[in-house]
Amino acid sequence: MKIKKVSFIVSAPTIRETPPAGCFPEVVVVGRSNVGKSSFICKLTNQKIAKVSSTPGKTRLINYFLVDESWYLVDLPGYGFAKVSKREQERWKIALEEYLSLRRGIRLAILLVDCRHEVKESDLQMYDWLCGNNLNTMVVLTKCDKISKSQQAKARQGASKAFQVPLEQILTISSHDGQGFDALGKCLDEILA
């Protein structure tokens, strides 16, 4: 996949402010706070279109990017730990659930999980929730440049077991050095074709 053009469309607090559904297929990026969603989006598009921060919870809105005038890449607020109030976390949760359960046109949900840690209960709950809403979901392990190849293999096996999916369905990527993005691009080409 060669992405040539990316345009920021809107930052929406709820589904009501998102672009009309059905105009373009959508690929949504979801994951815990600080899993590397913004870095992932910047690397995938080869453009600094998402704000990268070391502070968990930087993404607070549903951010829409139009890719090559043919599909939307959607950056969703993180779940789990974030340095914001409980009230704000609850608002994110409601907006996230509403968006994922009601939005039409989602072709793929990419669930990002930090490969340096065991799969968390909240990741499993999100995966079950996505699958329960009949969303095609791909598990992608992030930050693999921070661990050895043997640790990466162990992380993939652990994720395969935790999510109960075949090992070949678990991708490992690095937004730092680009590892795994070619394989991811091929998957996206097939899904968006």
Write the layout of secondary structure elements.
Layout (H helix, E strand, L loop, with lengths): L5 E7 L13 E6 L5 H9 L16 E6 L3 E5 L10 H17 L3 E9 L6 H12 L4 E6 L6 H15 L6 E3 L8 H12 L1
Parallel strand pairs: 2-4, 2-5, 5-6, 6-7
Antiparallel strand pairs: 1-3, 3-4
Description:
This protein is α/β, with parallel strands linked by helices and 193 residues long. 34% of the residues lie in helices and 22% in strands. The longest helix is centred in the middle third of the chain and has 17 residues. 38% of the residues are buried.
Short synopsis of the structure:
This protein is 34% helix and 22% strand. It has 193 residues and is of the alpha/beta class.
Q: Tell me the number of helical segments per DSSP (H or I, 4 or more residues long).
A: 5
- Written as H for each helix and E for each strand, in order along the chain, the element string is EEHEEHEHEHEH
Determine Rg (CA atoms, Å).
15 Å
Give a short account of the largest sheet. Answer: 7 strands, mixed
Q: Taking all residues together, what is the mean pLDDT?
A: 89
Overall geometric form: globular
Oligomeric state, counting identical vs distinct chains: single chain
Say how many strands there are.
7
Key words describing this protein structure:
193 residues, alpha/beta, seven-stranded mixed sheet
